[in-house]
């Protein structure tokens, strides 16, 4: 009887003592020795009711994980498109009609000795034959600005650069379009995360994928550069919301080690999307045709509104017990599992207390979450510049055919994601993330050193493959680590805040290669340095992997309380987030 009283009293005391919303910040009271131990960052006040009812992983979770991973495809399409639709190519002042049969080389040598932004004034009556015979008169030091250009379309077709003549005085507008898009990503990461935490994962996911599909179609109808920029700004906002709402929802449907595996599955479509864009751009070189082809998958995903569930953990955290019960009953039936006889009691035990306030950004800067938020902000900033610095600047490496290089680096990322699964399951989180970022940095330095020593394309491609393999693993592992560091009630908000940092980093990506004006090796050296900084900051954070599985819980029975267990980290009611 005393044991029962103790079991019933402990949660009651915890609820009264730590009323800070759904999650409770519990300061560490252990010794220094205890502090060095990996701690369960998102501990549980009771059994994981979701896994108890539907299992940690089953046929239903497998289907949902697959469907949710598909949402990464259209978002990645829109992020990667500028690699081909905004590719800078050679250009020159257009030839007048009477010189249209003159070769491009002869025309450039005669009329544009300085650059392609100014053209020599042509004397009256000049002919192509006179230029070819080098008898054409030259009006010395008489130049005028070019107003029309011709472009080299051997590698890519019509692009936004060729359509709106974004060269010479307007060359900076190409980078501006992508900066605006990436600003949208940064803002969308926070606002989208807040909306998702307040109104649900499914609503924000389906609402944003619908908006993304509409914007993709609108981008085909734009007739001016300003219209294009406005569409790209909103597109960035909704795209990041789609990606991370799908990611958070997928990991909240599973338990135990399957959290890691489900998270990894969300990243497998990324290299597939890179491959699709690269291959389609060969068949559809014109940017509007390519945009249309890549807009179709997003439209098809809207139909999944009738299939996808809301996150049961979010429903429980919001006190929507009956909605959670109905959803869990359907999932259990699909998994062919018998429902516990006292399912209502289990759900009530997990029901959150009424909160005085909803999730807010200030929660990310209270207690232990403060250090995690700041460190993750730095880590995401560095990782994003390294990953997208390599990914979106493939055209700046000048190492052969753009499409072939893109395909090779996309294929490399597939095994990088696959090998991350056993690493995450066996090796924890911090050390793999640190190692992969440092390896990427070393590979970038090696590519510069070898390019000086050997001057062969295959050596640079090999080093870039190693670097892309390593940072591809980081790009998959860091989101999973981020999710594990935040409790359910602010999980999407925490991930969104990390995306604000990533969005800030992305703003610098279009300008990264401008550093080459100071020194041609500076861009890659910068990437290497940021890789080391990002990896080092992760060491400050606590480990979330390699933790003991919670003991099997008899359905309907509360777990015994171990008074010797340190009470560190973040305390939640409805989510054990079993590592």
Automatic annotation (TrEMBL):
<dbReference type="InterPro" id="IPR005829">
    <property type="entry name" value="Sugar_transporter_CS"/>
</dbReference>
<feature type="transmembrane region" description="Helical">
    <location>
        <begin position="458"/>
        <end position="481"/>
    </location>
</feature>
<feature type="transmembrane region" description="Helical">
    <location>
        <begin position="432"/>
        <end position="452"/>
    </location>
</feature>
<dbReference type="Pfam" id="PF00083">
    <property type="entry name" value="Sugar_tr"/>
</dbReference>
<feature type="transmembrane region" description="Helical">
    <location>
        <begin position="228"/>
        <end position="251"/>
    </location>
</feature>
<feature type="transmembrane region" description="Helical">
    <location>
        <begin position="62"/>
        <end position="81"/>
    </location>
</feature>
<feature type="transmembrane region" description="Helical">
    <location>
        <begin position="402"/>
        <end position="425"/>
    </location>
</feature>
<feature type="transmembrane region" description="Helical">
    <location>
        <begin position="173"/>
        <end position="195"/>
    </location>
</feature>
<feature type="transmembrane region" description="Helical">
    <location>
        <begin position="258"/>
        <end position="284"/>
    </location>
</feature>
<dbReference type="GO" id="GO:0016020">
    <property type="term" value="C:membrane"/>
</dbReference>
<feature type="transmembrane region" description="Helical">
    <location>
        <begin position="493"/>
        <end position="513"/>
    </location>
</feature>
<feature type="transmembrane region" description="Helical">
    <location>
        <begin position="290"/>
        <end position="308"/>
    </location>
</feature>
<dbReference type="InterPro" id="IPR020846">
    <property type="entry name" value="MFS_dom"/>
</dbReference>
<feature type="domain" description="Major facilitator superfamily (MFS) profile">
    <location>
        <begin position="130"/>
        <end position="546"/>
    </location>
</feature>
<keyword id="KW-0472">Membrane</keyword>
<dbReference type="InterPro" id="IPR005828">
    <property type="entry name" value="MFS_sugar_transport-like"/>
</dbReference>
<dbReference type="InterPro" id="IPR036259">
    <property type="entry name" value="MFS_trans_sf"/>
</dbReference>
<feature type="transmembrane region" description="Helical">
    <location>
        <begin position="373"/>
        <end position="390"/>
    </location>
</feature>
<keyword id="KW-0812">Transmembrane</keyword>
<feature type="transmembrane region" description="Helical">
    <location>
        <begin position="204"/>
        <end position="222"/>
    </location>
</feature>
<keyword id="KW-1133">Transmembrane helix</keyword>
<protein>
    <recommendedName>
        <fullName>Major facilitator superfamily (MFS) profile domain-containing protein</fullName>
    </recommendedName>
</protein>
<feature type="transmembrane region" description="Helical">
    <location>
        <begin position="525"/>
        <end position="541"/>
    </location>
</feature>
<dbReference type="GO" id="GO:0022857">
    <property type="term" value="F:transmembrane transporter activity"/>
</dbReference>
